[in-house]
User: What shape does this take?
Amino acid sequence: MNRKLWLNLLGLAVFVLIPAIARAADEPFLINLFTRFAIYAIAAVSLDLVLGYGAMVSFGHAAFFGLGGYVIGVVAFHTADGSGILGWQGTGQALVLWPLAVATCALAGLLIGFLSLRTSGVQFIMITLAFGQMFYFILVGLMYYGGDDGLAIETRNTLPGIDLRNPVNFYYLCVALLLAWILLCRRIVGSRFGMALRSLKQNRRRSVALGLAPLRYQLTAFTVSAAGTGLAGVLWANYALFVSPDMTSWQKSGELMAMVILGGMGSIFGPVVGASVFIGLEQVLTGWTEHWMLVMGPVLVLVVLFGRRGLYGLLVPERLHG
Amino acid sequence: MAETARLELRGVCKSFGALRVTDDVSLTVGAGELHALIGPNGAGKTTLIAQISGELQPDAGDILVDGQPVTRMPAHRRAAAGLARSFQISQVFPEFDVEDNVAMAVQAHSPGGLNMWRDARRDPRLRAPAREAIARVGLGERGGVRVSELAHGEKRQLELAMALALDTSILLLDEPMAGMSAEESRRMAGLLADLKRHYAILLVEHDMDIVFALADRITVLVYGRVIFTGTPDAVRASPEVRSAYLGGH
Assistant: This one.
């Protein structure tokens, strides 16, 4: 057993034990906090696939987070008032809705990725930002769905056999999905596909000379990443029972990037640390001041300056990394 | 010369603005032939290699592999057509180890590139050919070393291993000995001598001793134009080559 494995198991143990700790300490709010950790960790791990492994700096990933959430919100809206969507009366079944929402996000990712990957570098950042903002303003303009104010959702989606209205059950579902997503992403980055993606990041010119077509790999990664980020949005809509255009704002995209960078790009586990520390700090600091970014900003700068591989990189020696 | 040239250039031209960097270049490389491309700095050797490998598009003329035009083929498909290139300045994957690097070359020409499940580092279909190519260039002991920790000469050997692992039959070698110590160059020259029967090789090289020792034919490029093509002896004897390039050599 090496240090990396110990650290990962420790992290897993904390996530698993939190409901018990919360009960023992009589702090039920801990479960909510850790639910948010898990949800944002799924989004951050997804972003790491393109940012850390593909060197695609997507500044519009919040669009997928919001889109996943809005699929849940809009279906709930039409199901609740009995109006239905395009002749479909709607459903509250997670097993139907969640794959639908994730597939919608994958499709959006395919489209946005296909258009954005015509460019690279700063242009890529700007075009993904533009797509994100486009989503934001479309949602703000949709007065029917609450516009700026967003949409409240009456109840969580249902799963057979598990009552998701119970916060502990919902929490464990989020943790299970996070774990599954991490394991899947680990496989992806170690596969032929993942190696090709990482080779393109390190030396695009050489990869092309070897015969790899960049678009194929980058677009696939972007699509998978969009699907994962969409799943996080789905969970968020169920957690908060509320969706609003803020989910797709550029600030949200920036926060996701900050989580990945804080935790350590290109490590899959790092973004989990990053998301937890980011949201945890936000939670603590907003208790003191609403200008909590005044503290978070310097923390980010220090981490980037002194640990180029993020917090996770500080904890795990380089040789075991990635 | 061989019956069908493995690689043929017909009247290739390329200009950057008013500067003609490739001016009506025609040449052939036959099977098993080592064809050296020499010329003073700025003669357009690397630019010509870039056009053959597809990084640059010629303005006019044709590039043929086994008689089939590849002139308009994108760079990433030319490897499949049979062209492997090594770079003048080592172009490798610094975060990977030596074996990963060469395995990428193997993977690039095998199916299943979008496989997201199977662990690529434990796939013998990638690893076995990679190890073979690494051993062939004399890096056998260094497979697990991160490329950023390799010595310069070793990176050049790695470049060659990657070209070999592509499993192609035409090698475009752009100064494989650039920056090598005398000892490393000597070893690389021995390696090229071994390889030359099995591949069609277009070699750009500054070291004239090595060129004259290894090449079957030599093309002399000056200001983007071919001023002479012939055997080493013919090149050495040619007065125009002497005045234009070789000087007192």
Notes: Chain A touches chain B through 28 residues (CB under 8 Å). The first strand of chain A starts at residue 151 and ends at 152. The mean pLDDT of chain A is 94.
